[in-house]
Amino acid sequence: MTVKRATVNCATMTFAIAALVFAAATPAGAIVGGAPAAPALKAHLIEVVSPNGACSGTVVGRNLVLTAGHCVDRPGSYAVLVRGANGPSVVEIDGVAIHPAWTRAHDQQKKPSPDVALVRTRSPLPAQFRPIALSAATGLPAVGAQFTLAGFGLSEEGSPRSGGVLRTVTLKVLLRYVTAQAKLVPLGGAPAGACELDSGGAALTSENGASVLAGVIAWSAGDGTKNCGAASAITAVGAIADWLPLAAQKLGARLGE
């Protein structure tokens, strides 16, 4: 298990915040082919930012966020972005645990692997955020199973201003990979799915009448020269269930409330 400490440089992080807020000035949203998320979901999803860019993440503890490994594996400063009533602010990330079976080479080679990381914030997240429950399912989801993806990414590929707003879209499982991932495709013929900046976002399902976290968005693909709208991949929570509590323990934190 890779555990590292992340630091935040105030000047570079301030620049990153300004860029992200400007990108979201036109509230076109995120997730290709999706719709604005239900207000209740905003308590569970958060943006992971650095001077290099941004990703999505899901709150799984008072100071824990689950995101994609490729979002936080490079040296540098990381934080979570809080869009509050008094304007945007950041909470520093000071610990990162990346799943040991994932590497940057896997990402570059498009090799399916558990592309997940658990990050710890220096202080508890603001009260507007609450940890979401994890799915009780084990292993990989069945072909045909439906999941709702949620993230802050682009709703229009290549348009930075279309990101920064939480949106959702429902997809179905087409393929299962033995290395913890599943490939999802649109329910209909129109492009739909994750896009840039949605990495690390949530794949949600319902268990006992409640929304639970079933996966972490890993990558997206499009038709032809496109990168979004044709397929999305998730790392299944059920396939990393043994690793998650160990990662939290290594970070000196606890999953859940």
Automatic annotation (TrEMBL):
GO biological process, one term: proteolysis
InterPro entries reported for this sequence: Peptidase_S1 (IPR050430), Peptidase_S1_PA (IPR009003), Peptidase_S1_PA_chymotrypsin (IPR043504), Peptidase_S1A (IPR001314), Trypsin_dom (IPR001254), TRYPSIN_HIS (IPR018114)
UniProt GO molecular function: serine-type endopeptidase activity
Domain Peptidase S1, first and last residues per copy: 31-249
Family that this chain belongs to: Belongs to the peptidase S1 family.
Upper lineage: Bacteria, Pseudomonadati, Pseudomonadota, Alphaproteobacteria, Hyphomicrobiales
SUPFAM superfamilies assigned: Trypsin-like serine proteases
Pfam families the UniProt entry points to: Trypsin (PF00089)
Name of the protein in its database record: V8-like Glu-specific endopeptidase
Coiled-coil segments: none
Record keywords, A-Z: Disulfide bond, Signal
Signal peptide stretch: 1-30
